[in-house]
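Field reference: sequence -> structure
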Amino acid sequence: MPNDSMEQASYLHEDGSFDSSAFMQQLDTFFNSEQANEDIETYLLQALAEAENAGDNAGLLTVLNEVMGFYRSRGRHEDNMWMIQRSLELAAKMQLEGTEAWITTLINAATGLRAAGRYEQAEDLYQQALASAEKRLAPSDRKLAALHNNLSMLYSDTGRPEQSSRELEKALAILTGSSPNPEQDIDLASTHANLALSMLAQATQEDQVNQNMLLDTASEHAAQALRIYQAGHLVSHPHYASALASYAQVAHAQGAYSKAAAAYQEALNIISLNYGQSSDAYRITSQNLKQALGDAQAAGQSVEALDTTTTKPTNGPAYRAEKAMHQNQQAQTQSRMTGLKLARAYWEQYGKPLLENKYPEYVGRIAAGLVGHGSECYGFDDEFSQDHDYGPGFCLWLTREDYDIIGDDLQADYNALPSTFMGYGPRQHSVRAKGSNKRVGVFEIGDFFASITGFQQAPPQDAPHEWMLVDEATLAAATNGEVFADPLGAFLQTQQGFQSMPDDVRFSLISRRLGMMSQSGQYNFRRMIDRGDGPAAWLSISEFTKATASLMFLINNPLTVGYLPYYKWQFAALREISGRIATRLSQVPQELETLLQLASAACFGGAGFGEGGRGAAPSIDRIQNEIDLICQQTIEELQAEGLTTSHETFLEWQRPYIEAHITSNAPILHSL
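Structure field:
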């Protein structure tokens, strides 16, 4: 029977539009909780109907893409055909051709068709996606590499190894050119290993001369994959076992049976460590090792550990130390829960029973969840986040009336709950998360929001001066997290108020961000470079990046995507929203990362600065090109949104067009 939370889920805004952001957050929660397949399907289909009934095509396309992925991963290919057809028809109806949303939908549909064995249709959609991507994306965009990888798998599935190899070579070139550190790039390692296998398959179709050439090249790719894992200190990683198996297959085809056996043996050790000796991977690798050992013996080849220029031996102290370290890391990873998931589990285990047993008359009036400051409230926490403000805990939010009656008693009962849970705890509170700044426990709703924003509730829509007092990072902290229960709806209503930034304020902030982008990126970066003031040029790039990141959230509307968080998590948030369907300027986060990667060479380069003797000039030109590209994309998006009719490329000159949409005469909203 479907979970109650699914039956009651509703993702409609007050204006009737579908809340794609809330839908995605809840879907992630269900997947993280290992919800039953039928429950997740029920949730997806309910969301599908809700988005369709709301007439929200963008929301509907978002849900369709998720349904396609769900059915594909469960092998329900016939059910998926209808979803694929609907998604393509809807994307065409929305006139998305050429956009990133169109590309994403094509890829998802093609991948579903490939999984179903409908290769001809899949290939056609992949080619359409590639044609659009090559026009839309920068040549160095790693999404292009992923698309070439998808095509290579299709060609491999259909017995076309030569074409598969070509696609992998294209992916390899993109990844190599865009990687900040190719020597330790795991995506590059995987592509090298896949290319080795593709060339191995290709070699079987060639004459002896070409076969030997292909095998030699395949061997180089396989060895390079191992070297990358080795340089990244990942020789106990399960993906390293796959790379070893690729190396072994190529070595075996070359008649180097002893090398193949040594690689299989090392892969077997890693598989045993990660998956156990009862796994299919262990069984298959054992069979391959047995075959390689037999062939080596018949050929009179002795089997030793692999040469250290290729990989590490499996019996030395360094390997044993790294293996022990990986076992410890694996144990931590397997047991680690995100803060939101831990909070929900703790609430279910202890919070709900507490209210039901001791405060039954208030159960229908108290909200629970985790919102506020801290990486766990954004869902960005990892193993490095557990040293402070992590552990069992949740928030209980009460109205003023209820808090005055039971607030102190409920806090005392909350404090009496177990301090450890599921192997975590007690919670380590940082100095900034104690007393009146506590992050978990019992709160009066208005006081909770005031502790974050300074306001008991969101400023009125006609009070722009109050809205302008609250920065985006503060609004992000007030509107993030998850609400596990809110039967009265008082907490969510208050939180929704902070998320509903007035359009006049949003337009004013967009204008300000355009002004900073033009001043720092289009004007001052090059002037500071020409003056030889590297630090000032560096700061110009920083200001341009911050303004552009904010602009991306504002253009996509905080009501849909939330607010840009504080600096530590800005790029994590940018990557998250850029991967969603129909996100505007979705290519910008990758372009901003490229800017920052080039900043050192451009601002502090000069002759011989680690750039092969080329100095700073190439990086300066690339940065200026990236800035110009981002600004041009911004103008095109503003035009598409009907916010400007101007084609002026200097963003400062676009500001009057944006501010013409502001209806209020409040001076604070208008530039001079």
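Note: The beta strands are 367-370, 395-398, 441-444, 482-485.
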